[in-house]
Amino acid sequence: MPNLLCMGEPMLELNQRRRQPNQPGGEILYLQGHGGDTSNAAIAAARNGASAGYITAIGRDAPGESFMALWAREGVDSSTVARNADAPTGLYVVSHDQEGHHFTFYRAGSAASRMGPRDVPEEAIRGARMLHVSGISQAISHSACDAVFHAIEVAKTAGVGVSYDTNLRLALWPRARAAAVIHAGVARADVALPSLDDARVLTGLEEPDAIADFYLRLGCPLVLLKLGSKGVMVATADRRERVAAFKVEAVDATGAGDTFAGSFLARHLAGDDPFTAARYANAAAALSTTGYGAVAPIPRPDAVNALLSGQS
Question: What is the β-pairing status of strands 91-97 and 161-165?
Fold first, then answer.
């Protein structure tokens, strides 16, 4: 079984493109892609050397088949993916106008949102070394929220590490509920991956050091506070360090946080200390912004190491 199991909802992406971009009335095409924060993280981990698998439910539909093919190509174990003939795979549409890009989600009643505690693959989790979940994993439905909490408890009881990425999406749930659930998850985690923007909303605090202290006091022993272009603060009870970001020609930051999470966990499971793993993950996340989409630009170790060597 995989060393790393990620849990959440994958979503097929349909990204609007015009056949002739300079003609607003021209034919519109939709390019198919793949999204979902924890799926992205699993792929990033696999590309960077980890044995990774995914826990979810998807429909017996064309989007579901597309994900099964994607995970097979990427070496992500899908033996813990359930197929549901009565519920669809979620999807979202990206449209573009003069004000930027906009997302329309179609996830209500999706197969992943119907997961509950009884659907958690307990034996697979017990056989892993790390379980990775996120705020989105818990926001999509009450039953999915309970499923994630159950998965966390199975992992903790078995001595399996837990990683939690806040990934706050206020369109999915109220701030007060999000804060209560996410903080309860982080309190049981071994690795917390909040972004500065998320943490400011969830905690009401502004300064990175105060935010790191908040999450450490919850009981999580390792906090990686993502600071965007300013890198990441890595905090433990006895050491705190800011790991600088890497300068690249960024064109699209979609999925950069997921690339950071998956790449960090790959190196963490490989035995790197948190500060070394965070520097590697910073480089991987930076490179992921140099291409379009969440999956295609996720780098592999040769590209990451080349960037690390050039800025060492």
Answer: unpaired
For the chain, give the number of residues: 312
Q: What predicted TM-score, i.e. pTM, was given to this entire model?
A: 0.94
pLDDT tens, residue order, the chain (312 aa): 899 999 999 999 888 876 555 555 567 888 889 999 999 999 999 999 999 999 999 999 999 999 999 999 999 999 999 999 999 999 988 887 777 677 888 999 999 999 999 999 999 999 999 999 999 999 999 999 999 999 999 999 999 999 999 999 999 999 999 999 999 999 999 999 999 999 999 999 999 999 999 999 999 999 999 998 899 999 999 999 999 999 898 887 888 999 999 999 999 999 999 999 999 999 999 999 998 888 989 999 999 999 999 865
Q: What own/partner pairs with CB < 8 Å and gap ≥ 24 does 88-91 have? A: 88/59, 88/61, 88/63, 89/10, 89/11, 89/12, 89/58, 89/59, 89/61, 89/63, 89/64, 90/9, 90/10, 90/11, 90/12, 90/36, 90/63, 91/11, 91/12, 91/13, 91/14, 91/63
Nearest to 58 by CA among 9, 5, 120: 9
Q: Closest by alpha carbon to 130, among 42, 215, 219? A: 42
Quickly count: other Cβ atoms within 10 Å of residue 39's Cβ.
28
Tell me the catalytic residues: 258
Cβ-in-10-Å burial (0-12, 13-18, 19+) of 67 comes to buried
Beta bridge partners of 16: 30
CATH class of 4-10+36-89+108-310: alpha beta
Q: Which residues contact 3 (CB under 8 A, 6 or more apart)?
A: 50, 51, 52, 128, 129, 130, 269
